[in-house]
Amino acid sequence: MFDPASIRRCDFCETGRVTKHYSLVSFRQWSDKGYIFCQAEIPIGVCNRCGSQHWNQDAETIVEDAFQQSYRQKSLSGASSV
Length: 82
Hints:
Layout: E1 8-9, E2 17-31, E3 34-47, E4 53-55, H1 57-80
Antiparallel strand pairs: 1-2, 2-3, 3-4
C-alpha cells in the first residue's frame, strides 16, 4: 500500500522524491565462527529522479537482527556436531 507520509526529498539530488520500498537483500558478515550468510527484507528509500537508494536505521536494525539470528543458528548447529 502506498503511504504518502513515506515520501521525502532526496538527500543526493535534492529534487527527487524518495519513496519507501521493501527489498530482499543477501549478505555475509565475518564473525568468530567464520562468514555468516544472511537474508533480510529491509525498507529502502528510492529516489524517483536519480535512483539513489537510502538505507535508514530501521533497515540497519533488521540487518543486525538477521545476523544475530543466523549467528545463533550456526552456533547451535556447530555445537551439535561436536
